[in-house]
Design goal:
43% helix
């Protein structure tokens, strides 16, 4: 009887001792997401889609965001290893946000079955800023909803060692989906798609950030 009582008490005592020596983990810092508005075209619809997305990001406690609006940065398509002071000033508007990001959401329309030149220029001016980070896509357009632009972006970003998220959010015939105040007329399906996409983005961002803390990418 004594042995039985002793064996029953020992695990409890050990558990108490363990809990006293092992502290709860500190909460991790929120993931920083750079939301890239990929179009700088006159009369673009991108800001409407961006504000819709940002409203969903603001609801989450695990994400904080920076906006990279390519209408605000005049990046030349002519690349240089020794950019001028003028170009460096334009890069300074976007490069720190890309470098600080744990993850990206790229908003893109579809121009002639592909993505805008402004977005390609942003991608090509940077390298390490994309590496070992996840990228999600929100696209918009006519019948295709911008999905052909997304499929062209995937191999480009893979070449830069980024990880693209499988699930996207796409708006087909986008102009008819939002009212004059920028509200989605029937948001249930789009909201569900955004949650799935952001959940996947957050999973990959947490995993890659933790992995890089243990071992820098490429080492």
């Amino acid at each position: 009887m004594t042995e039985t009582t002793s064996s029953a008490v020992a695990p409890a005592a050990a558990s108490a001792s363990l809990s006293a020596t092992v502290s709860a983990p500190e909460p991790a810092a929120p993931l920083r997401v750079a939301v890239v508005i990929g179009s700088n075209r006159e009369g673009r619809f991108g800001p409407v889609v961006a504000e819709w997305l940002l409203a969903r990001v603001r609801e989450r406690t695990d994400l904080v965001f920076d906006v990279v609006d390519l209408a605000d940065a005049d990046l030349p398509t002519s690349l240089s290893f020794r950019p001028s002071d003028t170009v460096n000033a334009e890069l300074a508007k976007v490069t720190p946000k890309l470098a600080d990001a744990d993850a990206f959401v790229v908003l893109t329309p579809e121009y002639n079955h592909s993505y805008p030149a402004s977005l390609k220029s942003l991608i090509d001016w940077h390298g390490a800023e994309w590496q070992a980070k996840p990228v999600a896509f929100v696209s918009y357009g006519g019948l295709s909803g911008g999905l052909r632009a997304v499929e062209h972006l995937r191999p480009v970003l893979a070449e830069l060692h980024a990880v693209t998220i499988r699930d996207t959010v796409s708006f087909h015939n986008a102009g008819a989906l939002f009212d004059d105040e920028g509200n989605h007329r029937d948001p249930a399906a789009a909201d569900a798609a955004a949650k799935t996409m952001l959940d996947q983005l957050a999973w990959w961002a947490w995993a890659l950030r933790a992995a890089k803390e243990v071992r820098p990418y490429g080492s």
